[in-house]
Write a structure and sequence with these properties.
Elements (H helix, E strand, L loop, with lengths): L10 H33 L10 E7 L2 E8 L9 H10 L2 E3 L12 E6 L4 E7 L8 E4 L4 E3 L2 H8 L16 E3 L4 E2 L3 E7 L5 E3 L12 E5 L4 E3 L5 E8 L2 E6 L14 E10 L7 E14 L3 E4 L3 E3 L2 E8 L8 E5 L9 E3 L2 E8 L6 E9 L2 E10 L7 E3 L2 H7 L5 H12 L23 E5 L4 E3 L4 E3 L3 E5 L6 E3 L4 E9 L3 E9 L2 E11 L6 E2 L4 E7 L6 E9 L2 E3 L19
Parallel strand pairs: 12-17, 19-25, 26-28
Antiparallel strand pairs: 1-2, 1-4, 3-7, 4-5, 5-6, 6-7, 8-9, 8-13, 10-11, 10-17, 14-15, 14-16, 16-17, 18-20, 20-23, 21-24, 22-23, 24-25, 27-30, 28-29, 30-37, 31-36, 32-33, 32-35, 33-34, 34-36, 34-37, 36-37, 37-38
Helix pairs in contact: 2-3
Length: about 550
């Protein structure tokens, strides 16, 4: 029989030949295989910062939006590195920011090279000559129109377009409902249709939103189509339009599930279009109420407001007509929310309309404000007595006091200490020497007193009592008041005790109404000892005598009526 050879003469030989070939092939190609694996791994990593590589990180606030590392010379024109490399190369220094700005939207670009890193606060605009940036040294640079257009036309600029996210959906308590999911498209500055990638969505249908007084949903921009399916205890009870929800009668305390589908149609002129779905729960509660403790007062006085059925005090809106240029601070007091609203002597007498709103509730209350019924006397001070009032008429001294008052810690202002009546020195061994608003005049200057001077018949240091319970905010001295103490009674209501002979309380002390805080000092060389009292609602001066001897209605509960 003819020999066919070792590798070909039988099956075993063929197998051995095959194995040997495989081994040889593996040995030959191992370096190539390892090189390919290494390339695959490295290609998924960020390019290291070599001499030519640049890393650009783009932030919206603290949120990192995009980050790319690349050699600008090899980068594609639509890449983040290419765009910002061009932006920085073409910056032109400017002395001031452009007047025509693109709103307040700012993006922070951090550009890092192998040995340097620079940050730029960027303000892009679709208006010519209006894009600019500010570097870390606060130098202003104009961004060229071509570079601004390149960025605004890229996918990196999505957060600059209001139309890149669906119109907001609000409940009757002004809560913004997050979409469950969305298919959304918008047009950029170049007219290109882009698919939005930055829509906040939630898959938590257990989210419960508050609705105040009535059911209702309102879109920031009305959809072309919208349906609302309402479920109660897992059973669908309604399938209606969102605009008809306000007609649905539901008992307060009821929890419902809303499944909402909204569509904005596509057309040639549409800047955005798409479909958004929502799935969430709502809790209906009673309407909010706003009650003032009085509807008539004098200039130099203040009112307090009690608000019911408020879940988020930050969502209370307030304004007046005419404008009193004061924004009340609302505080929770059990189930009631309260605030104090001053009407200073700087305002004009007349009718004021106070508008309070919370969600679907809006209430307008008319307040009649009159001039003070007791006209303070005008006092002429001769040269001999001029020294008595020289501190009072010194504007630098009064400004220094205002700075002290404005810088005081407000950590106690949310507490309501003054549950009882405020004290009245005039009925407690003291008499009013000069009232709030008294005008002093000399041949050189004139001054209107911004507090009340009380005097005592006794001498030798009469104990000065806290006019109501509160926390000591300040204990010190200044040119205007000499030694003085500031007490916070709650809701920003503060009393100031000046011209004290001595002080026996410290900052942080909690005092009761009638508790001694110090002793009287000398008001002037011609009268006995006394104390000078001021009253503030935050930084607004009011006349203390309006509340002297009275209990403020802080504990007033509308439900009790």
């Amino acid at each position: 029989m003819k020999n066919k050879g070792y590798f070909l003469g039988n099956k075993t030989a063929k197998k051995n030949k095959l194995y040997l070939l495989v081994i040889i092939a593996v040995l030959v190609f191992i370096p190539a295989i390892l090189a390919f694996i290494n390339y695959s791994i490295e290609s998924n990593k960020s390019t290291p910062l070599t001499d030519k590589a640049v890393k650009v990180s783009l932030y919206d606030g603290d949120a990192l939006l995009f980050e790319e590392t690349e050699d600008p010379e090899r980068a594609l024109p639509e890449s983040l590195v290419y765009i910002f490399d061009s932006v920085i190369k073409n910056l032109t220094e400017a002395s001031e920011t452009p007047r025509n700005l693109y709103g307040e939207k700012m993006l922070l670009a951090v550009v890092a090279k192998s040995d340097t890193e620079a940050s730029y606060k960027c303000f892009f605009s679709e208006n010519s000559g209006s894009s600019y940036c500010v570097d870390g040294a606060n130098k202003i640079y104009l961004i060229s129109d071509d570079d601004a257009l390149a960025f605004m036309s890229s996918s990196y600029s999505e957060t600059l377009y209001d139309s890149s996210v669906p119109p907001k959906l609000y409940t009757t308590s002004n809560d913004v409902v997050l979409p469950l999911n969305a298919e959304w498209k918008y047009k950029n500055i170049a007219g290109e249709v882009c698919s939005s990638a930055m829509i906040d969505t939630t898959d938590d249908i257990e989210t419960v939103y508050d609705m105040a007084g009535i059911l209702g949903l309102e879109f920031e921009n009305e959809p072309d189509e919208c349906s609302v399916k309402v479920y109660k205890s897992g059973i669908i009870t309604l399938d209606i339009s969102h605009t008809a929800l306000s007609t649905v009668k539901v008992d307060p305390g009821t929890t419902l599930r809303f499944v909402v589908s909204a569509v904005w149609n596509e057309d040639a002129d549409a800047q955005f279009y798409g479909k958004v779905n929502y799935d969430f729960k709502v809790l209906l509660r009673d309407r909010s109420e706003f009650i003032l403790d009085k509807t008539e007062l004098e200039l130099g006085d203040f009112v307090t407001v009690a608000c019911t059925n408020i879940l988020d005090i930050n969502k209370i809106n307030f304004h007046t007509e005419p404008d009193i240029e004061f924004s009340p601070v609302f505080f929770e007091d059990g189930d009631i929310v309260r605030a104090a609203i001053p009407f200073s002597q700087e305002l004009k007498a007349g009718e004021y309309k106070l508008t309070f709103s919370y969600g679907a509730t809006q209430e307008v209350i008319t307040l009649n404000v009159s001039e003070s019924s007791d006209t303070p006397p005008a006092v002429t001070v001769d040269e001999k007595n001029h020294s008595i009032f020289n501190a009072s008429v010194n504007s630098l001294s009064t400004n220094a006091l205002q700075r002290i008052m404005s810088e005081l810690d407000a950590s106690y202002s949310g507490y309501i200490f003054c549950r009882g009546a405020f004290g009245d020195y005039a009925s407690d061994e003291a008499s009013i020497l000069y009232s709030y608003g008294t005008e002093f005049s000399t041949k050189n200057i004139s001054y209107i007193l911004d507090g009340t001077m009380y005097t005592y018949a006794q001498s030798g240091g009469v104990p000065v009592k806290a006019l109501n319970a509160g926390a000591v905010l300040y204990s010190g001295s200044c040119d205007y008041l000499g030694k003085f103490v500031v007490i916070e009674h709650g809701l920003g209501i503060r009393t100031v005790y000046g011209h004290l002979g001595s002080i026996n309380v410290s900052v942080g002390d909690i005092v009761k109404e009638g508790e001694s805080i110090g002793r009287t000092g000398t008001l002037n060389s011609l009268t006995s000892e006394g104390v000078f009292v001021q009253c503030y609602v935050y930084n607004t001066l009011v006349d203390y005598t309006n509340i002297a001897g009275k209990a403020l209605d802080f504990y007033y509960t509308p439900e009790a009526e």
